[in-house]
Specification:
- The structure is a single chain.
- This protein is of the alpha+beta class.
- The protein has three domains: 2-150, Glucose Oxidase, domain 1, CATH 3.50.30.30; 158-389, Glutaredoxin; 393-447.
- Helices cover 36% and strands 19% of the residues.
- It is built from eleven helices and 19 strands.
- It has an eight-stranded mixed sheet, with helices on both faces. A four-stranded mixed sheet has the order 12-11-15-16, sandwiched between helices.
- Helix 3 packs antiparallel against helix 6, helix 5 crosses helix 8 (286-295) and helix 6 (253-266) packs across helix 7.
- The radius of gyration is 32 Å and the shape is globular.
- Keywords: Glycoprotein, Membrane, Repeat, Signal, Transmembrane, Transmembrane helix.
- It is found in: Endomembrane system; Membrane.
- Residues 174-340 form the Vacuolar sorting receptor thioredoxin-like domain.
- It comes from Paramecium octaurelia.
Amino acid sequence: MLFLVSLIGIVYSTQLTLVEPSLTIPSTKNASMPVNVADFGYVPYGRTVSGNLTYIENTCNPLNITLNSTIVLTMGATCKFLAQAMNVQSAGGKMLVIIYNHEEDISNFLLIAEYGSQQSFIPTMMINKADGEFLIEELKTMSIYVSVSFELKQQEIVDLQYFLSSFDLFSYLFLDEFLPFAKQMINKITFDPIYIQFYCKECERTGYKATNQNCISGGRYCGQDPDSNGPLTGRDVILEDLRQICILQKYDLITWWNYMIFFNKLCFNNYQECPSKIMKSISINETTISNCMTSSFVGNNQLLDDNTLLKEQRFKIMRNHQVYWPSLYINGEFYKGDLYLNNANESTVFNVDDFAVLEAICDGFLDDSRPTLCNATGFFSIQDGEIKDQTSSLIIILIWVGISMLVLFLLLISFLFIRRMMLKKVRDDVGSQVDTYLKNYYKMPEAQ
């Protein structure tokens, strides 16, 4: 399933540039046009993707052609954008550019794919309708070579802002997979979790004087009901958000991160006493956190009084115009691409180069401040919050596979050699017997 989400206010700086021939795009009056990069697939931050542009009107069905690493331009269609990307990828294309089939500005939308769907390994992006129609017309008479550079602002210390919700399962996938990497670059990053919240418009009109089961502070801070007709409400979500904010404020980042990992594993099916048990198990003082939560309200009534910590969260959300989660900002720029390894678990062995979000974070460092981890290569797995180097294990496995193949090959050669010798002996024996029988036959009277 793929969604087109409105994100008015976010500015995308990535441009598609016409390299050869030199053309002026009517809408921008230069050789570059804005693109909206899809929030799925592999986005190669720190690199430039270039190639000849090939127009294919419809990419909804498998393409019975070989694209030879060209960049595909296609019209927007009713099928899923991810399905189009997969078809282009299968045919050998290196990037997909989709023409938006409406007049609206593409910067108002975010293209995302549902977790667990097929995984694309090429970047996908959208361009405005007028720019796409210009390219289609020019491609009728000439070849066009284009390039797109995927760049992030670089800093000595990388700033990460992560938008999440405490009762959103997908919010924990990135935290679970990125924890071992975060431990190794803890002194090189700042990490600011920002909890998504809503507010009650009707409550605002009446001065936040009414209570709502999905809100606190008179309706200023609300959450989605996590279990519909179950015992939990949106108010529980907001209060858990507040607890997690206090844990980060009173302890260090790794302690907060460990709480999050345990919460994900233990609390979704049995929430009531779960936070207390986790805090005790990892030496978080529950009284300290409770006092932090209480003191963050400007009065004694949590149902009606404002909350300073949640107000700060609201400011961060409004500043980034962010309504979609989980999502990540790297050095103030909205990260596009897969946030996690699709369908990965502790038995999954992956190439560290395939963890796209790690590559993007590494690209956010200045060259002379890159952590050692950013230069790592090879195969890894994530087990109990730690990175396990699987390269040597894979080499051993490959050696044993090679030895096994060699032994099988030698056995096959030996078998064929023995078989050939046996067949030769059988032929010689049969031939000798036939000669004997023929000699005896010609000696018989009847053969005279």
